[in-house]
Amino acid sequence: MVATKRKRHGDLAVLTKKPKRKKKDAEPPAKSSAVPKEVEEAEKGSIPGPIFKGEWKNKERILIFSSRGINFRTRHLMQDLRTLMPHSKADTKIDHKDKLFVINEVCEMKNCNKCIYFEAKKNQDLYMWLSNSPHGPSAKFLVQNIHTLAELKMTGNCLKGSRPILSFDPAFDELPHYALLKELLIQIFSTP
């Protein structure tokens, strides 16, 4: 029995077998003799160069999340930070009962190496933790005034996700603990 295939207009077409290739057709085409053999042997022995020749890319990922019990202004602040920082990731809220080392595990699961954690205590005080998640330093800040992007009328030619401008007092270079805080802030808020 011959295999048939129906065409679009309803006519039957008979499928035929493809002709076999001859031996001389099956051979690969001969290489051109324009390249000398010594050059080919030298290329075989050399190590190929790197795939990407360029500058180092910042592949920092930042996890931004909070504890339970935050108010709407803190939630809007977190959302604004996520929109301004294209290298950030979000996570669900964690309970007050969990210890702070749980944050390292959450960062590891989300493949993040920096963390911004907002901790609300007694529905009044808000603390912001900045940390290097595996085993780096962490800093705790008391947040007193929150102004969201909806309140601020920013004018000018600004791009969302562009490089922020961080300016520090000269005292940040003099004392070692201030220098550590300066480096932590630069690593977290600089966009890749």
UniProtKB/TrEMBL annotation:
<dbReference type="GO" id="GO:0005730">
    <property type="term" value="C:nucleolus"/>
</dbReference>
<comment type="function">
    <text>Required for biogenesis of the 60S ribosomal subunit.</text>
</comment>
<dbReference type="GO" id="GO:0019843">
    <property type="term" value="F:rRNA binding"/>
</dbReference>
<dbReference type="InterPro" id="IPR007109">
    <property type="entry name" value="Brix"/>
</dbReference>
<dbReference type="GO" id="GO:0006364">
    <property type="term" value="P:rRNA processing"/>
</dbReference>
<feature type="region of interest" description="Disordered">
    <location>
        <begin position="1"/>
        <end position="46"/>
    </location>
</feature>
<protein>
    <recommendedName>
        <fullName>Ribosome biogenesis protein BRX1 homolog</fullName>
    </recommendedName>
</protein>
<dbReference type="GO" id="GO:0000027">
    <property type="term" value="P:ribosomal large subunit assembly"/>
</dbReference>
<keyword id="KW-0539">Nucleus</keyword>
<dbReference type="Pfam" id="PF04427">
    <property type="entry name" value="Brix"/>
</dbReference>
<keyword id="KW-0690">Ribosome biogenesis</keyword>
<comment type="similarity">
    <text>Belongs to the BRX1 family.</text>
</comment>
<dbReference type="InterPro" id="IPR026532">
    <property type="entry name" value="BRX1"/>
</dbReference>
<feature type="domain" description="Brix">
    <location>
        <begin position="60"/>
        <end position="192"/>
    </location>
</feature>
